[in-house]
Amino acid sequence: GAVVSQHPSWVICKSGTSVKIECRSLDFQATTMFWYRQFPKQSLMLMATSNEGSKATYEQGVEKDKFLINHASLTLSTLTVTSAHPEDSSFYICSARGPYQPQHFGDGTRLSIL
Amino acid sequence: AQSVTQPDIHITVSEGASLELRCNYSYGATPYLFWYVQSPGQGLQLLLKYFSGDTLVQGIKGFEAEFKRSQSSFNLRKPSVHWSDAAEYFCAVVRYGGSQGNLIFGKGTKLSVKP
């Protein structure tokens, strides 16, 4: 079945640093990728949607300069949390879908900012 | 606005017992519906989906769900629960007008399984 790989699975870093999270579709071409944020014991909140080769569409309230999304190829999207602060600590999950396909999710990245 | 409601925050069942997780949606036309499962600290795994056709949908791990338009429901069922089924379950619907397939998630139902 469709596999989405997300890396790293856990990252701890100091406040003020930037963190990059990768999302790869391993066995299909992901025309669209999604980035979600999940707070403890809550549901997933869509942050942005990206199509290969075009700018990401951000949900209301999500800072595009804070959360940089790049979808340079049909198999790779990256989320960069710039100048991360403790309030950015969360569980970030990506998903990917091909044409006429449901979304397949990565295993998530737990980001902890000290 | 479209929404998905999972009325039960937490359900506990005994191993071997049957299970039904409730999901209601608000949308005028035929929705595209999904059930996902999330184990602690992990991403989401697709259990099953409904796009059209037969209203009883079979999924992986012995799960099934039934789409009932009259009740705006898409409840998830399993006849006999295993301890490994303990996880968080999310119902989701494709956002109307979301040509890219954006999903709206319910708040989730946590399933605990007693031995």
Can you walk through the features of this model?
The complex is a heterodimer of chains A (114) and B (115). In chain A, 38% of the residues are buried. In chain A, a hairpin with a 5-residue loop joins strand 5 and strand 6. The mean pLDDT of chain A is 91. Chain A has no helices and 11 strands. With 114 residues, chain A is an all-beta fold. The N and C termini of chain A lie far apart (37 Å). In chain A, the strands form 2 sheets. In chain A, strands 2, 4, 5, 6, 9, 10 and 11 form a 7-stranded mixed sheet that branches. Chain B is mostly beta strands. Chain B is built from no helices and 12 strands. In chain B, the strands form 3 sheets. In chain B, strands 2, 5, 6, 10, 11 and 12 form a 6-stranded mixed sheet that branches. Chain B has a 4-stranded antiparallel sheet with strand order 3-9-8-7, with no helix packed on it. In chain B, 32% of the residues are buried. The model of chain B has no long low-confidence stretch (mean pLDDT 91). The chains are: A mainly beta (114), B mainly beta (115). The A-B interface holds A 4, 6, 32, 34, 42-44, 46, 49, 51, 91, 93, 95, 97, 102-108, 110 and B 34, 36, 41-46, 49, 90, 100-103, 105-108.
